[in-house]
Amino acid sequence: MLDKAWALIGGALGYGVLRMLKDKNGLVRPPGALEETAFLATCVRCGQCATACPYQAIKIAGPGSGFGVGTPYLAVRENPCRLCANFPCIKACPSGALKPVKERKAVRMGVARLNRKTCLSWQGMRCEICYRNCPFLDEAIYLDLQPNRKTGYHTIFQVWVNEEKCTGCGICEHSCPVEQAAIVVDPEGR
């Protein structure tokens, strides 16, 4: 009877640990990152990917990051991934936590999510900065031209995200002029 109780407790704790690993605290991982649980188990926390990044976009998670302490992530609002042609961060990874990516378009760090209530384009203002800065113009982010029903003139350039094409690089979030970005990379969309 006691063995069954300990087995249940152990199972519940194991499930809790796996759940915490899966939650990942909303960290956007570098290009080529394995699925979060595998990434946390494989990353040796050496920081070589951060050192290799020519834009210094990769940061190392500090205290308060749970199981992710010492792992690389991107704070894309501050400094997005530029999707370097040769992926020096991936080449620098000694453990395989960052797997090789054949082309820039194949990267999946997350998916940009648009808040239509705060997006200037959706408010009828002429702002398509995220669209213009997207490395995959008219693919990952595109515009839908709509008539302005409020004024009857001028066109509204509504911004849309194609989740299938979005790499999660964060260039859109970084370039958004709204104080609290109207477009944000969701790492869960990987």
From TrEMBL:
Keywords: 4Fe-4S, Electron transport, Iron, Iron-sulfur, Metal-binding, Transport. The keyword Cytoplasm does not apply. Residues 34-63, 72-103, 157-188 form the 4Fe-4S ferredoxin-type domain. GO terms for molecular function: 4 iron, 4 sulfur cluster binding; metal ion binding. It comes from the Bacteria. Pfam families: Fer4_7. The keyword Acetylation does not apply. Signal peptide: none annotated. This is Periplasmic nitrate reductase subunit NapG. The lineage of its organism: Bacteria, Bacillati, Bacillota, Clostridia, Eubacteriales.
